[in-house]
Amino acid sequence: MTIGSRIEAMRRMDAQRRGFPGEHLAVLSAGLLLLLTAGRSHSLPRRLLAGAAGGALVGRAASGTGGLARVARMVQGGRGGRSTVRVHRSI
Questions:
Q1: Residue of 74, 68, 71 lying closest to 88 (CA atoms)
Q2: Contact 33, 10 (CB under 8 A)
Q3: Continuous segment of H or E residues that includes residue 71
Q4: Model confidence over 15-54: pLDDT tens digits?
Q5: How far apart are CA 38 and CA 47, in angstroms?
Q6: Of 14, 2, 29, which is closest to residue 91 (Cα–Cα)?
Q7: What residues have CB less than 8 Å from 76, skipping those under 6 apart?
Q8: pTM, to two decimals
Q9: Counting Cβ atoms within 10 Å, is residue 89 exposed (0-12), middle (13-18) or buried (19+)?
Q10: DSSP state of 61
Q11: Helix and strand tally (H, E) in the chain?
């Protein structure tokens, strides 16, 4: 099994699982904590690693399994508008 096929299998498995309440908030908090840690570190490799991991977690919280797209649809639906919200999923 190649790395690409393993990543694809993990993505499929993640897309099929049910999320738990507050998952996006927990992931966002962990990502922000890592970004703050990256800013305080004096070691360049630690800064890069913490910044990359924190950015990935913040992005995951925003896109996740319907994260930002679901919130945008709820906000639009709550205002009585019937417009379609389109959110680009880059991952």
A1: 68
A2: no
A3: helix 67-78
A4: 787 777 778 888 889 999 999 999 888 899 999 999 999 9
A5: 4
A6: 14
A7: 83, 85
A8: 0.59
A9: exposed
A10: H
A11: 4, 0
